[in-house]
Write a structure and sequence with these properties.
Blueprint: H1 2-20, E1 24-30, H2 36-50, E2 68-70, E3 79-86, H3 93-98, E4 101-109, E5 111-113, E6 122-125, H4 133-140, E7 145-149, E8 158-159, E9 162-163, H5 164-169, E10 180-193, E11 196-203, H6 209-219, E12 224-234, E13 237-238, E14 243-244, H7 251-257, E15 259-260, H8 262-266
Parallel strand pairs: 1-14, 3-12
Antiparallel strand pairs: 1-3, 1-15, 2-3, 4-11, 4-12, 5-6, 7-10, 8-9, 10-11, 12-13
Length: about 280
């Protein structure tokens, strides 16, 4: 009996050490609904459970079994590529925040919401029958290149140390952030079936698709909001080739998908120190 217990503890310890020795970045699929933080915590929980950590609590600060972060928040209503850094890979995530991203966005003309997407309440309705495909394509030209953009009020940006979206939900008054420079590398209209239209977007860091669609609606003498949003690429990671879906969140799959840090690549056959098993 004692031998079996010792063997199980050794297996848990070995799996945990292997998990904690990971250093690099990989991409997972964020489904529509949960926040990016929720998805990251679900990933941590799945990996720790596989490593044998009993009743893991990824939010608990007292004991961090696994160092992990994500490279750029996706709205809860959005889906697609979420880049994850593990170990020393978390230090590389800043490059994901500033790097190139691609999105496919479905906008809806004629309705504006307080959140600028479908999760919010409708605050304005205007006609859109006058808008043609050519009108949209012509207006998109002014949103391409180096432009100034006002971030949405409902966002992860902070005021007094708290996210604007959280403050708004608590009923606090928040001030709009000033317009800031952003870069749109390419912007094309894929489909136009009023009131819906589909945009293919490649942009740099700090860009908000919701703000683009809102401003586009105004430029067309109407209004609009984002109905659906999918991030199809972030840095070198694409939706088709690189993301791990929830059923693939295992140590083996992450080892195969991991892009190691330079430090990890230079380590040749490291022998990790044996650590005590989880409490």
């Amino acid at each position: 009996m004692a031998g079996n217990t010792s063997s199980a503890a050794s297996k848990v310890s070995s799996s945990l050490v292997k998990l904690q020795s990971l250093h690099g970045m990989f991409a997972i699929y964020k489904k529509k609904g949960p926040t990016s933080a929720d998805v990251l915590n679900a990933l941590k929980e799945a990996l720790l459970k596989e490593a044998g950590v009993e009743t893991p609590n990824p939010r608990k600060r007292k004991k961090q079994w696994l160092k992990m972060g994500h490279g750029g928040t996706l709205d809860s209503a959005a889906s697609g590529v979420l880049v994850v850094g593990v170990g020393d890979g978390t230090k590389m995530l800043s490059s994901m925040l500033t790097g190139s991203k691609k999105y496919v966005a479905v906008g809806e003309l004629g309705k504006a919401t307080d959140t600028l997407d479908a999760t919010g309440s409708v605050v304005l309705e205007k006609g859109f029958e006058h808008i043609t495909r050519l009108d949209v394509e012509e207006k998109l030209k002014s949103f391409t290149g180096d432009i100034m953009q006002v971030p949405p009020l409902f966002s992860a940006l902070k005021q007094d140390g708290q996210r604007l979206s959280v403050l708004l939900k608590k009923g606090h008054k928040v001030e709009a952030k000033p317009a800031r420079p952003v870069t749109v590398h390419s912007l094309t209209l894929q489909e136009f079936t009023p009131p819906l239209f589909t945009l293919d977007i490649e942009c740099g860091g700090g860009f908000y698709v919701r703000s683009l669609v809102d401003e586009l609606g105004k430029a067309l003498s109407s209004c609009a909001h984002v109905k659906e949003l999918v991030r199809t690429k972030q840095g070198p990671f694409t939706l088709q080739e690189h993301v791990l879906h929830e059923h693939q969140w295992t140590l083996e799959n992450i080892l195969q998908a991991l892009r190691p840090t330079p430090h990890a690549q230079n380590q040749q056959n490291p022998t990790p120190k044996e650590e005590p098993g989880p409490e």
